[in-house]
């Protein structure tokens, strides 16, 4: 009981500190600043064991599909950066021991530049990068009035689509969440005013009420976010739950049993 008390005390004081570090990392204007805020240091080691699969040329920076995989033992976090964006940290994903170091998602790029991914393993940061040529940037400019904005979630789970598929001991989990993911840097074409920032900050994925992945997002994730990842030790009948929350205090969740 005594050990449990001290552990809970540790969580009570450490969680607000971690939340503050995460906010500082997403607000940082330079990648080095974001790295230090998030991980406590910015010492990177290039690794041939990490792969970024993405197009060499993206017609629109508003939606660039990237796939990240790696063979780094004990990876507990995968972070994605676009140093040329106004805020370089796009997202970071906290992985459980059963979650395979693999992420597929859509991101925004303001202009031609590098995508850099960082894998943390036992406080060592491993990295690789890929250059993508962007024809039209996707972080600012002007746009028609938003039509996909959500004022409230009318029916629980209605904003989330989820599919699962198990093969060879790995379960593939795919989700699409209907959300505008506004950056706060795009002007309304009719009014000339900035469309207020409205984006998902965190998505928690659980298997039978235990976290298997926590996705932390900034404004660099594309509209109607798509996520695909892989996890081990999921059985038929297990319940996968997805819960999201955004910067305007909106949230939604969906739970489905694995077939």
Give a structural overview.
With 259 residues, this protein is mainly β. It has a single domain (46-257), classed as SoxY domain (Immunoglobulin-like, Sandwich), CATH 2.60.40.2470. Helix content is 14%, strand content 46%. The chain has 2 helices and 18 strands. It has helices spanning 2-27, 31-39, and strands spanning 44-46, 50-53, 57-60, 64-70, 75-81, 89-95, 102-107, 113-121, 124-136, 141-143, 160-167, 170-177, 186-188, 200-207, 210-217, 226-232, 239-246, 251-257. Strands 1, 3, 5, 6, 8, 9, 14, 15, 17 and 18 form a 10-stranded mixed β-sheet that branches. Strands 2-4-7-16-12-11 form a 6-stranded antiparallel β-sheet, with no helix packed on it. Strands 10-13 form a two-stranded parallel ribbon. A hairpin with a 2-residue loop joins strand 11 (160-167) and strand 12 (170-177). Helix 1 (2-27) runs antiparallel to helix 2 (31-39). The radius of gyration is 18 Å and the shape is globular. The N and C termini lie far apart (39 Å). Residues 6-11 and 13-18 have low confidence and may be disordered.
Largest sheet: 10 strands, mixed
Distance N terminus to C terminus? Answer: 39 Å
Radius of gyration: 18 Å
**Any idea what the shape is?**
globular
Number of domains: 1
Task: For the structure shown, list the relevant keywords.
2 helices; ten-stranded mixed sheet; 259 residues; Immunoglobulin-like; single chain; mainly beta; six-stranded antiparallel sheet
């Amino acid at each position: 009981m005594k050990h449990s008390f001290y552990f809970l005390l540790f969580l009570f004081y450490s969680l607000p500190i971690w939340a503050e570090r995460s906010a500082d990392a997403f607000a940082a204007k330079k990648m080095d600043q974001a790295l230090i805020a998030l991980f406590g240091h910015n010492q990177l080691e290039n690794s041939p064991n990490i792969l970024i699969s993405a197009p060499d040329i993206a017609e629109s920076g508003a939606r660039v599909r990237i796939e990240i995989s790696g063979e780094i033992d004990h990876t507990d976090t995968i972070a994605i950066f676009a140093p040329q964006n106004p805020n370089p940290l796009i997202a970071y994903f906290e992985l459980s021991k059963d979650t395979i170091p693999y992420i597929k998602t859509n991101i925004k790029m303001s202009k031609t530049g590098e995508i850099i991914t960082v894998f943390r393993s036992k406080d060592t940061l491993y990295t690789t990068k890929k250059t993508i040529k962007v024809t039209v940037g996707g972080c600012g400019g002007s746009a028609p009035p938003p039509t996909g904005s959500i004022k409230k979630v009318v029916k629980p789970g209605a904003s989330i689509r989820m599919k699962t598929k198990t093969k060879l001991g790995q379960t593939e989990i795919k989700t699409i969440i209907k959300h505008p993911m506004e950056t706060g840097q795009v002007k309304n074409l009719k009014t000339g005013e900035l469309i207020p920032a409205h984006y998902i900050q965190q998505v928690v994925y659980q298997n039978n009420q235990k976290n298997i992945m926590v996705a932390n997002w900034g404004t660099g994730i594309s509209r109607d976010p798509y996520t695909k990842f892989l996890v081990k030790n999921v059985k038929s009948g297990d319940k996968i739950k997805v819960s999201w929350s955004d910067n305007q205090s909106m949230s939604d969740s969906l739970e489905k049993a694995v077939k």
